[in-house]
Amino acid sequence: MSNCQNCGAVLPVNSSVCEYCDTRNFVDFKSSTASSTLGPSQRKCALCSTLMETINVGSESKQLPIEKCNHCHSLFFDNGEVELMLEMHSGDPTSINRQRLHELCELAMESGERKAYIPCPVCAQLMNRQLFGVKSSVVVDICHDHGLFFEPGEIRHLIEWKRAGGQILDKNTKASAPKERPRKTSSSHEFEDYDEGGFSGGRNGGFLGMALEMFFDILD
Ligand SMILES: [Zn+2]
Ligand SMILES: [Zn+2]
Ligand SMILES: [Zn+2]
Q1: Structure pTM?
Q2: How many domains does the structure of the chain reveal?
Q3: For the chain, give me the number of helices (H) and strands (E)?
């Protein structure tokens, strides 16, 4: 649970916008981390075109610079940086908390989905949309050459996902069930668009259909 940085009211669980004063809060990292600005960036936010800023989301001794939009609070990670960030912020869970993963999925379902494709902050090519991991319920915008773009709240969600063992489940799932054909379920329609973008060759390429299927099947 977090509070509005402007008026102190408790924020809704699945939104960074205060219901009382309409302030858009930065919820992905604690303010002590978020305040460590490193300088302006030449990269443009994929959502609102504002020039982004480089911030440090690592520690003082081990910096992890990423881009943040100060207008809409979206984040951009170069390839490989999300994994580093998750290691630093989620610790190293050894078990899977299915109840917690289930709760996280339910929360994400309520917050709705954006359909449009948006441009990579580095090369301006339209990015693909891809489920980050089994039961993560975070559909990330990805440029295979440059990195991953996250809307406000999605990184917070991924940190919780990994803490609950989501990444272990993701690895187990991908290792144990390689080539089943995805079966469309009634509840998967909102993700159908993401099948079209040519995901082969990506880090998680080829697993998308299965990942989506597992995502819904494991809920029970
Ligand atoms: Zn407020
Ligand atoms: Zn923005
Ligand atoms: Zn790119």
Answers
A1: 0.76
A2: 1
A3: 6, 7
> How far apart are the CA of 73 and the centre of ligand 1, in A?
16
Q: Which residues surround ligand 2, an ion (CB under 5 A)?
A: 45, 47-48, 50, 69, 71-72, 74
Closest CA to 151 of 159, 163, 140: 140
pLDDT at 161: 95
Q: Is the pLDDT of residue 34 over 80?
A: no
Question: Domain of 132?
Answer: 28-220
Neighbours of 199 (CB within 10 A): 21
Instruction: Give the number of whichever ligand sits closest to the CA of residue 119.
Output: 3
* CA distances, 63 to each of 33, 34, 57, 78, 168 (Å): 11, 13, 7, 14, 26
Give DSSP secondary structure letters for 7-75: T-PBPPTT-SB-TTT--B---SS-HHHHT-EEEEEEEEPTTT--EEEEEE-S-SSS--EEEE-TTT--E
User: Ligand 1 center to residue 62 CA distance, Å?
Assistant: 33
The answer to whether the Cα torsion of 36, 38, 43, 49 is positive or negative is positive
Instruction: Give a yes or no: residue 175 inside a domain.
Output: yes
